[in-house]
Write a structure and sequence with these properties.
The protein is built from two helices and six strands. It has one domain: 2-Layer Sandwich (Alpha-Beta Plaits), CATH 3.30.70. 29% of the residues lie in helices and 34% in strands. The relative contact order is 0.20. The protein has 96 residues and is an alpha+beta fold. The strands form two sheets. Strands 2-1-3-4 form a four-stranded antiparallel β-sheet, with helices on one face. The chain has a two-stranded antiparallel sheet with strand order 5-6.
Length: 96
């Protein structure tokens, strides 16, 4: 079970409360879990995605270990700016 990190910016209190109930918050708006199964990670993302679609407030980024993704990192985003990871000649970069 890989580690997952979620970073939020300007999200409703409801979203922050939910994330804090399932993951420790070591810094404001940053949530992390050392061992989070794929199923749990996907359920958390479904909840925050549904809430974000309803309100459109803030932005959320989730990062997790994914051997099949560029640089071995999975990335999911909500809000702006949307980003994705790309491997450019062995260098992992975030592109808009």
């Amino acid at each position: 079970m890989p580690m997952a990190v979620i970073v939020t910016r300007d999200v409703p209190t409801r979203t922050r409360g939910f994330l804090a109930s399932v993951m420790p918050e070591p810094a404001p708006g940053v949530y992390t879990a050392g061992e989070l199964s794929k199923g749990v990670r996907e359920r958390i993302w479904t909840v925050v995605s549904d809430w974000h679609a309803a309100t459109g407030e803030g932005s959320i980024v989730m990062i997790w270990r994914d051997e099949k993704a560029p640089g071995g990192l999975g990335l999911a985003t909500l809000g702006t700016p949307a980003r994705r990871l790309a491997d450019l000649d062995g260098v992992l970069v975030s592109i808009w």
